[in-house]
Write a structure and sequence with these properties.
Elements: H1 3-25, E1 28-29, H2 30-39, H3 46-58, E2 62-69, E3 72-79, H4 81-103
Antiparallel strand pairs: 1-3, 2-3
């Protein structure tokens, strides 16, 4: 596996956690998530973002609802109980990993 592909896999994992985080705060739509992710340096194409949202929904971590906003139908996603649960586990593991990485850095 090339370094580029490995880094991409890491960031896709971070993106999934980021999506779950925001969906646990309030229902979010893909457009808003794309903008939020870009604000954090993740430039995710719709061809990556929407399949990721659909996969998280199929896995039972997100629930989708349709809303009409300014005359357009938008799909909003919110975290399910399982999504919140996996987010909590991911937070714990991410903190443990970050502590180890930072501890050995200095």
């Amino acid at each position: 596996m090339t370094d580029h592909r490995l880094i991409r896999e890491f960031f896709l994992g971070f993106i999934k956690i980021h999506i779950l985080y925001h969906a646990a705060q309030a229902p979010v739509c893909g457009v808003d998530l794309g903008e939020e992710l870009a604000r954090h340096g993740y430039h995710v194409s719709p061809g990556t973002l929407y399949p990721t949202l659909h996969a998280l929904e199929r896995a039972g971590y997100l629930q989708r609802e349709s809303r009409t906003v300014h005359g357009r139908r938008r799909k909003y996603y919110c975290a399910t109980g399982d999504g919140r649960s996996v987010l909590q586990r991911a937070r714990k593991q991410a903190c443990e990993l970050l502590d180890e990485i930072v501890e050995n850095d200095g």
